[in-house]
Amino acid sequence: DIQGFVFDLDGVITDTARLHSQAWRHIAEQVGTPWSQKLQDSLKGISRMESLELILQAGNREHDFTDAQKQELATAKNKEYLRLVEQLTPADILPGVSDFLRDLYNHEYRMAIASASKNAPTVLEHLGIARYFHNVVDPSTLKHGKPDPEIFTKAAALINLDPQVCIGVEDAAAGVAGINAAGETSIGIGDPQVLSAADINFTSTEQLSLANIRHAMRQPVA
Ligand code: BG6
Ligand code: MG
Questions:
Q1: d(Cα 110, Cα 159) in Å, to the nearest integer?
Q2: Tell me: the pLDDT tens digits for 119-168?
Q3: For residue 184, which of 53, 62, 164, 166 is within the disulfide window of CB 3.0 to 4.6 Å?
Q4: ipTM (interface predicted TM)
Q5: Catalytic site residues (predicted)?
Q6: Number of H helices, E strands in the chain
Q7: Residue 212: CB atoms within 10 Å
Q8: Which residues line the pocket of ligand 1, CB cutoff 6 A?
Q9: DSSP state of 11
């Protein structure tokens, strides 16, 4: 039986992806990388430094900056991102998520955040939902990013559960792959074609409910 839930943050609980994009876009302009939807999508779930590398590569500029300069660019991006995060309020929680979190909490499920973002605790505070989570994985303690299962394995361990009794919720294909590799049940939120590896697909956060999950888990795998 399911005893815990492990949540991605960006794109599952709140739409911070657009804030990350806004901040990265300015860095891309600064280094002369053309911005595209494809580049923007490729940054989902990817760590800060890896994101910068992808942006530099897209403009063929990966060899033009020293490590110190890269640090400066990453710091500048984060400064702007945090300025945008300051404006987040509980109204920025995605539809259905508040009710779902409250329901899980009242049913005494254990809950953790498995986000690649070092800013996750700050975002949770601004959204007013930090108290629901028993733990937030610190991504600076990880050796490998998503799609590696490490962050999901660690999240389960932090809430004292075996991965087998945990459900992971993700909006990125790399995240779903990580949840599956960790041996947890995966819920993919978004385009079912992109997230076809997920055990359960919901097209929107509005579908997140214990009743819908129970129903989906009773269905035989196609
Ligand atoms: C992930 C986002 O959750 O966190 C990425 O999807 C982001 O876009 C990554 O780059 C790292 O975030 P931060 O806040 O540590 O720069
Ligand atoms: Mg995400």
A1: 6
A2: 999 999 999 999 999 999 999 999 999 999 999 999 999 999 999 999 99
A3: 166
A4: 0.98
A5: 8, 10
A6: 9, 6
A7: 16
A8: 9-10, 20, 43-48, 51, 78, 115-119
A9: T
